[in-house]
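Quick check before the chapter quiz. The format below is the same one you will see on the exam, so make sure you can read both the input and the output lines.
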Amino acid sequence: MNAVKIVLVFIVAVFLALAAFAASPDLEGTWVGTAELPEHTADDIVLILDKTGAGVRGTISDGLGIIRPETAFAGFRADGNTLGFHFPAVDGLRIAFTLKARGDRLIGCWTDPDGGTGKIELVRKK
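Here is the expected output.
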């Protein structure tokens, strides 16, 4: 491949990456809401998302003490309006969140390896 083709491929790749970044929802900020637990118990959730040069990082806390305060999450992924990540609960069980961004709301569910699941709804704190 000659130098002109390499430069053109690089320019197209950069353009596509910038277009994908511009199209992704702005997730940065503090999100508050609830997660539905078994037997319809509700747990207050606080999710803080920060954009970094390498992607998104953040922390999660809850009101019932199932999650240690300001637990860092791992495995963040975003695909269009869908995002996901996982984190350890106090008992060591790994919990995964899958959420869809809808304006200033994140709606989705949590799951754990034991088959537990429940709804989540968060709103961006202004």
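If your answer matched, good. Residues 58 and 95 are 15 Å apart (CA to CA).
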